[in-house]
Design brief:
alpha/beta, Rossmann fold, seven-stranded mixed beta sheet
Amino acid sequence: MSRSHEVAMNGARSLFKSLVDAGVTTCFANPGTSEMQLVYEIGLTDAIRPILCLQEDVVTGAADGYGRMKGTPAVALLHVACGFGNGVAMLQNAARANTPIVNVVGVNASYHQANFPEHELVNGRVSDIARVVSHWCGEARSASHLGELGVEAAALAKTGKVCTIVAPNDRHWEEAVPPPTPPPPAGRPRAAAEAIERAAELLANGKKTGLVLGGLALQGEALELAGRIAARTGAVLLAETFPSRYLSRGEGRPPVDLIPYELEIGIKYLESYQQLVFLGARLPVATFAYKDKPTLKSAPGCELFTPASEDQDLETALRSLAEAVDALGTPPIRQARTPASASPSGELTADAIGRTLSELMPADAILVDEAATNAAPIQAATRGARPHDYLNPATGGAIGGGLPMALGAAVACPGRKVVAVQADGSGMYTVHALWSMARENADVVVVVLKNDAYAILGLEMARVREGELNAKMRSMLELGDPALDWVALAKGLGVPASRAGTAEEFHRQFAAAIAEKGPRLIECQVAVPKELLALEEVLHQQR
């Protein structure tokens, strides 16, 4: 670590040396008093890039987006138990996605914690809440131990884990020895040979088969191998509804379809499959339990088999499976580019937005999808876009991750355009991310889908309501009184913004935003897709 003058090693410096030596050089931060020594040490080095965020879910959500795209961890710097608690929702998504993250939580000096317990939890300590959304948690017992924890956390995080270091601030300023050398990268366990053989038997039996991919199977050489297997055996490539890490898709990539979120639509989608083979993906379980409804989206009698979990070496598993079905020499099926056609016109719908994205998104773009009820038409319309990577933040069920994830992805991949398609209700959870985008000049185009409601809850209410919703019920689902003004919000946070009311206006504004470097926001007034409104009516009638 470079610095202008030589000073003794302290705990904070030992910590950051351990992280930098491991290749961890980006820090999303919302610091407080107990992190000032850490902030000071970051300021003395050129090796760490700090990015200030105005709320802790932006910190952790940005670290999630960064880790998913970069494949290496960022630091999420947080302040005491309350600050960490504010970031828990996005850490839940990150932990379920197996995103590499190193959280550093500053707390009161070890000798002062009993004097001011308000910085801890009423019935516990910050380490208690950290453990519920972390795969690993350690608390520094000394300044030198802080550096040792940095080595351990960085190494484990790189395997796809959320790791949390609790750092009492006397450990920051006390004298320390340099941290140990980072260990060599750890490999992932391999799938059992018997499991690969069984999967090969299923793929060869002539039944309609879905090869359901998740995690690192959805990108790079692993996806290429899956494409070869599909081309050889006739299996269809599917992805779990909320893919962890990211999905490489678009022109020239093996086509992969996301299993639909809504239970009834997912059941219809999977009803013809006789067997599903899962590599790095979870079973197609309904997100919520519903009265008199099945738990699985797959058909009764459909065989479900998992030869390799997300924590295993998926590329090697797919290579072994490709070899077992004699697919290594088979060219994979490739997604064709959507043919050029007239630009969308008239009513501004999710489909029209998706078609514009498909036409105008540059190659190697990153598409962040928190479109919620409008997601399916946009996913379908962008299937044949130029090659791009697809991110969905809601892997742990927490909404609001779209804007922070877009920020983190832009920081991780500065040469790539990021397009964030954002539902209005969930976007308000973390609207503060726009300020950090402006400050960092992040190359993000935010497309806000404004329907002035938590529209998905209208669908869920149809399962339980008798008759029409009354005013009190609607007041808990609707966002139109007062109306949200995303153009004013964005401008107030430093992001240029505009409003589109027709398909032509959106096409023109999106083309202009894509041509510029830096953040832009376009507010789009869109309706709930007709398919979901029809499903809502069916569910109500069934009730």
